[in-house]
């Protein structure tokens, strides 16, 4: 069983908006540090719309994985998340239909938008966190996988008890049912909101958290999900993280370090690897490298022969792969330069 990844959510409490939470980049960064010290490996933040400042501030304080939320926003308003190289971005797999205490959220998300998210995450090297609210969400995830827009691990969060048209019962039965539907290769997390404002003890949340911990899945806690501890007292997110970490230890589940969590979700920061694959490890042709190649040899081949350019480039990549020039990393800088020189020779040879 893998170590437990705890995701911390020190954001607005949608059902209890009177609960205080960090609102400035500096305050969010300090709360992130405390959450990390108490066992969290991922920070789910709304950044109060100040994405760049918040990402920079958090990274200056600790090495926690930065996951940027607010999946209800259009892609055009989330480009700052990509441009500032957040580690993860939340993407809902269905429409938003939420009924909170002081606001409602109704946003339609088409499959074309999900495809666009896949392409942007591939381009910028950001890990998508797929929000799974019901069985239809799983269908959309399978749709993306079937079109080879994603590679495992598929990081997903299963939501329970969030009020509105996408509500599902916060019960262990619902968790087990939906978990069985998830495709192989998923790294699953759970988020439980206690929608009944008269209930502060969060019995449904505790049950699902316990089931996820003993089943090998991961958990998400914080003021956004449910701001009350097990005694019914409002506490900051880092104390909820600490309480959950103690629960995991009591159940015999070790906590994941930040580096272990990075490996589990496919975020290998040291090598810049991505869950979408890399042309340095495969004969497949990336769109970016193909267009770079085409632009360099455009004058040689003429505007009407682009299909030949693509075919030549594909042959080159395949030859490099078979010849062993594509490896999981050159042993030295010199070896990498020699491999690059050989690839260049093959490119020129292909187009003559």
Essential attributes:
43% helix; disordered C terminus; globular; 12 helices; 8-stranded parallel β-barrel; 352 residues; alpha/beta
Put the structure in a nutshell.
The chain is an alpha/beta fold and 352 residues long. The protein is 43% helix and 14% strand. β8, α6 and β9 (186-192) form a beta-alpha-beta unit.
Can you lay out the helices and strands and say which pair or pack?
Layout lengths: L5 E3 L16 H13 L4 E4 L5 H11 L3 E4 L10 H5 L4 E5 L3 E4 L4 E4 L3 H14 L2 E6 L2 H12 L7 E7 L11 H10 L4 E7 L10 H13 L2 E4 L15 H14 L7 H8 L21 H15 L4 H18 L9 H19 L1
Q: Supply the CATH class of the largest domain.
A: Alpha Beta
Number of strands: 10
Straight-line distance between termini: 54 Å
Q: Beta-strand level of the residues, as a percent range?
A: 5-15%
Q: Which residues sit in consecutive blocks of at least 5 with pLDDT less than 50? A: 269-274, 277-352
Sheet with most strands? 8 strands, parallel, barrel
How helix-rich are the residues, as a percent range? 40-55%
How does the helix and strand content classify structurally? alpha/beta
- State mean pLDDT (0 to 100 scale): 83
How many individual helices?
Answer: 12
The CATH homologous superfamily of the largest domain is named Aldolase class I
Q: CATH fold name of the largest domain, please? A: TIM Barrel
Quaternary structure of the protein: single chain
Radius of gyration: 23 Å
Shape: globular
Number of structural units classed as domains: 2
Order of helices and strands: EHEHEHEEEHEHEHEHEHHHHH
Cross-sheet strand order for the largest sheet: 1-2-3-4-7-8-9-10
CATH architecture of the largest domain: Alpha-Beta Barrel
């Amino acid at each position: 069983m893998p170590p437990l990844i705890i995701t911390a959510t020190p954001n607005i409490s949608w059902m209890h908006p009177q609960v205080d939470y960090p609102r400035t980049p500096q305050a969010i960064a300090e709360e992130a540090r405390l959450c990390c010290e108490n066992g969290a490996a991922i920070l789910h933040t709304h950044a109060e719309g100040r994405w760049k400042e918040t990402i920079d501030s958090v990274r200056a304080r600790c090495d926690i994985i930065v996951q940027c939320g607010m999946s209800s926003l259009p892609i055009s308003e989330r480009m700052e998340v990509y441009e500032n190289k957040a580690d993860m971005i939340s993407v809902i797999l269905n429409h938003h239909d939420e009924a909170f205490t002081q606001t409602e959220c109704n946003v339609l998300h088409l499959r074309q938008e999900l495809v666009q998210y896949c392409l942007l995450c591939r381009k910028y090297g950001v890990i998508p966190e797929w929000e799974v609210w019901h069985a239809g969400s799983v269908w959309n995830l399978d749709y993306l996988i079937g079109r080879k827009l994603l590679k495992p691990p598929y990081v997903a969060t299963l939501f329970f008890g969030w009020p509105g048209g996408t509500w599902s019962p916060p019960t262990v039965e619902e968790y087990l049912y939906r978990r069985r539907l998830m495709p192989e290769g998923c790294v699953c997390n759970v988020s439980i909101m206690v929608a009944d404002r008269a209930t502060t003890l969060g019995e449904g949340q505790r049950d699902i958290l316990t089931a996820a911990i003993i089943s090998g899945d991961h958990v998400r806690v914080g003021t956004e999900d449910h701001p009350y501890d097990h005694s019914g007292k409002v506490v900051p997110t880092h104390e909820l993280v600490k309480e959950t970490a103690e629960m995991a230890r009591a159940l015999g589940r070790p906590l994941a370090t930040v580096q272990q969590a990075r490996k589990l979700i496919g975020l290998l920061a040291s090598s810049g690897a991505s869950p979408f694959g890399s042309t340095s490890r495969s004969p497949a042709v990336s769109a970016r490298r193909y267009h770079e190649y085409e632009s360099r040899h455009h004058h040689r081949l003429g505007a009407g022969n682009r299909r030949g350019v693509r075919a030549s480039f594909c042959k080159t990549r395949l030859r490099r792969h078979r010849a062993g020039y594509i490896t999981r990393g050159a042993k030295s800088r010199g070896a990498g330069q020699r491999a690059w020189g050989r690839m260049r020779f093959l490119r020129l040879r292909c187009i003559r």
